[in-house]
Amino acid sequence: MVKRHPGERSIVPSHRVEPGRLIKAPENFLDPQGVRAVMHEARTGRRDFIRSAFAAAVAGAGTGALRAQSNPVPTEGGDPNILNLPAHTAGLGQPVATDGYGKPSRYEVNVQRRQSPGLTQTAQASVSFAPLQSLFGIVTPSGLHFERHHQGWWDVDPSRHRLMINGSDPGLVNTPKVFTMDEIMRLPSVSRFHFIECGANTGMEWGNVAVPTCQYSHGMLSCSEFTGVPLKTLLDLCGADARRGRFVLAEGADGSSMTRTIPMELIESGEVLVAYGQNGEMLRPENGYPLRLVVPGVQGVSWVKYLRRIEVGDQPYGAKDEVLHYVDLMPDGRHRQYTSIQECKSVVTTPSGGQVLLDRGYYQITGLAWSGRGKVRRVDVSVDGGANWRTARLQTPVLTKCLTRFSLDWVWDGRPAIIQSRAIDDTGYVQPTYRQLRAVRGSRSIYHNNSIQTWLVQESGEVKNVQLS
Ligand SMILES: Nc1nc2c(c(=O)[nH]1)N[C@H]1C(S)=C(S)[C@@H](COP(=O)(O)O)O[C@H]1N2
Ligand SMILES: [Mo]
Q1: Which of 97, 166, 193, 379 is the most exposed place for a label (fewest CB within 10 A)?
Q2: Measured between alpha carbons, how far is 243 from 334 in angstroms, rounded to an integer?
Q3: Residues sharing a CB contact under 8 Å with residue 331, sequence separation 6 or more, in sequence order
Q4: What is the model's pTM?
Q5: Environment of ion ligand 2 (residues, CB < 5 A)
Q6: Does 169 score more than 80 pLDDT?
């Protein structure tokens, strides 16, 4: 339902306000050689190459992308797109099951998850970012889900995969068990939509603006419908002592020795799933096939992939990824540990960095909001750098610990505009500005940057990633 403030006039397109045209962000502005150049610069602390490569891609997009994206109806005379019957109208199409597993249109090949230029030294311990600026609604297609591997991904044989459940001492789990995939998949299951966000998402922006597009600034974020068995069901089957055993250790089967402590209270709520399904089919290998932990609201690192063992214990484990990594460096030089919940955050995906607005006129501002603590209650959008805010429409469904899509009508008058979104969750928490966040966290952190994002629409129509001081 569209809720309007009293007195707010509708500005959706009409004969008076035409919708404007938009050039997509150049998604493929770095070839493999470019990625290597950026990695080399990263080691020396420079960023010249990525900046100039991006500028060149934007300049090139001006003509090429425009031609590819708009094929306007001629103002005079007949439209050849109507008058000349295309082959698909005159001929016989392709047969069923040409592809036993269908693929996206060849016209959409540019929509890809892409590796982070310069972020990591190897492609096995690395990240690929989801193309948020090209997606609709709230679900991330499985093939575009972001990836974060510490030691590369595997396609694990499900017939040989096992899940062991044991206690750190014999008293904590009555009957330790080993489950096969078949045994897990015969248990009562649930399906739920949840976002997963790496704790390091937007981490490169702590000090200053670092990357040009929202794919790279916010793309360690995805959302799927997950299917699996509540971990609580499995712990009950093994007779775990949840009174004394207030923590579990989750362990992955890949070489990264990914181990994370999960507090029992999250498990007791029934939210934590031992999942095998993602968007209606089995998990993709990159996302932990055949089994992964789903820990709604908690940073991605705790969603252990290739899950092979759950140990019930009576204290936090202090694993390497809880002591050395995934800690927050505070301004006083100390590290903050176990800050696992992803706080409320949002980002405008259109208009966003790298896109170009070609006309004055109507644009739908749209983006994503989420909170690790519950539902998104409200999203405000500003087009003047936070001086004035309007309430965006929230698209249904609005689900807990899930992405929520928002949108707002906007008429661009051709003058510079500073676009921001600010999400508020159902605990009342308000997404902070950089000034507010840095006052508490300083600027030398990596993880848990949930600041308001700013996109500058320049007079030329080019959209840039900026930070307001
Ligand atoms: N076994 C295993 N589990 C893992 C990881 C890993 O490298 N190995 N990476 C973690 C991190 S840091 C994140 S952000 C998420 C990423 O999940 P995805 O690759 O499905 O997006 O998986 C987590 N689980
Ligand atoms: Mo992560």
Answers
A1: 97
A2: 32
A3: 441, 442, 444
A4: 0.92
A5: 148, 198, 300-301
A6: yes
